[in-house]
Design goal:
Blueprint (H helix, E strand, L loop, with lengths): L2 H7 L4 E3 L4 E3 L12 H21 L4 H6 L7 E8 L2 E8 L3 H10 L3 E9 L6 E3 H6 L3 E4 L3 H8 L12 H9 L2 H20 L4 H20 L5 H19 L6 H17 L9 H30 L5 H6 L10 H9 L7 E4 L6 E6 L2 E7 L9 E8 L2 E6 L2
Helix pairs in contact: 8-9, 8-12, 10-11
């Protein structure tokens, strides 16, 4: 059925099992329904391809196109001419042209019947396929078919290897979305809790898995990888060299999103029904990933930092001279723009500064600062505090 029938018509001979089926090749969408214009756009080239293959391999063209388009009505007509009977398969639209020409040449119509009524797709079992001229013969098994054909060439059966199964699983939409969500969470934790290596490593690892699996599956080209790598580099520059989320960070995020979206498909813009279906699926995957990361970031920034379980799960060694309780207090203390403090560790560009006797993680704007430098808060975004040298 479906694509299998298309492959069969491309062959010079078809052998079927009695219980096998052939036909039903109308293009459809897995989600939703195609409108009339889009449906015709998908069917038109497929009708032409099926007709061409049927003509080349001597299969009934009228029945071949009836596998694709339910609007086509196909008839079986038996005519007698010069004492010989001939069976024809014609579409209703071609009836006058084909049968009428034979009648004008002296042929008599012996019988005619509708094989495929309008509104139905042609689907045949083995016996019907043989009777209609598609199947050369029927065989209960592959060995029986090879014996009948007296085939001497060894048959090679293609199947997926174990790693191809793994790649297919990783490229499954829900798995891709989950990996992207984990990557986003890992990067967020690493940025907001400097010094924690594991979350960032896990995030980058998940992103690398998506990149590698898409590349091995033939979905990713070099341009997508370049876009994502460039975006990650810009984000790292924004975090560590140019504090305060600005143009560099926005461009980096945009490149990562664009590269990630193109990574999921072998085309840029959809050109047919199948590509439109893939495009919609990828929009769903990317959208669910963004929503998942947003929800996780909200929970991490608003609720989890205050929980003891989170504190036990993500333990950051406090600076020299700071107790664990003080470190926990640091994560729950807030400052505002304009507050003045003093660095208690070098800022390269992240480090520690003390404000009103409260040590906090900060990021220096524009330059590295030494310990003991008076600083002023210039931006606060969640748990991210950006400072610069005062004066």
């Amino acid at each position: 059925l479906s694509a299998g029938a298309y492959i069969c018509l491309a062959c010079g001979g078809i052998v079927m099992a009695p219980t096998a089926t052939l036909g039903d090749c109308m293009p459809i969408l897995a989600f939703g329904r195609m409108d009339k214009e889009l449906a015709e756009k998908a069917r038109s080239p497929l009708r032409a391809k099926f007709a061409t293959l049927a003509k080349r391999n001597n299969y009934p063209q009228a029945l071949a196109v009836a596998m694709v388009d339910p609007a086509i009505e196909a008839l079986e007509v038996v005519v007698r001419m010069n004492g010989k009977q001939r069976k024809l398969f014609v579409t209703k639209s071609d009836y006058d042209r084909v049968v009428g020409r034979l009648v004008r040449q002296g042929a008599d119509i012996v019988s005619e019947r509708v094989v495929v009524p309008a509104g139905k797709l042609l689907t045949m079992d083995g016996e019907q396929a043989k009777r209609f001229g598609f199947a050369r013969f029927l065989a209960p098994s592959l060995d029986a078919a090879l014996k009948t054909l007296n085939a001497q060439t060894p048959v090679v059966v293609l199947s997926k290897s174990w790693w191809e199964h793994i790649i297919s699983f990783i490229n499954w939409g829900p798995v891709v979305a989950l990996l992207l969500i984990i990557a986003g969470i890992g990067v967020y934790i690493e940025v907001t809790h400097p010094g924690m290596v594991v979350p960032g490593a896990v995030g980058i690892g998940c992103l690398a898995i998506v990149l590698l699996s898409s590349y091995l599956a033939g979905l990713a080209a070099v341009i997508e990888i370049i876009l994502i790598v460039a975006g990650v580099v810009l984000l790292l520059i924004e975090v560590f060299l140019i504090p305060g989320f600005g143009v560099t960070g926005l461009v980096g995020a945009a490149l990562v999103v664009l590269g990630g979206f193109l990574l999921l498909q072998p085309f840029v813009l959809p050109q047919n029904a199948w590509e439109m279906e893939v495009f919609k699926r990828n929009m769903l995957v990317l959208g669910s990933s963004v929503v998942g990361v947003a929800v996780a970031v909200f929970l991490l920034s608003q609720y989890l930092p205050r929980s003891r379980a989170f504190g036990r799960l993500f333990v950051v060694e406090p600076p020299r001279g700071m107790s664990g309780a003080a470190a926990l207090e640091e994560r729950t203390s807030g400052v505002k723009v304009g507050d003045v403090g003093r660095t208690i560790t070098p800022l390269r560009p992240s480090g520690k500064a003390i404000f009103a006797s409260k040590p906090l993680s900060v990021v220096a704007e524009g330059e590295f600062l030494d310990e003991g430098v008076e600083v002023e808060v210039v931006a606060v975004s969640g748990k991210r505090i950006v400072v610069r040298k005062r004066g």
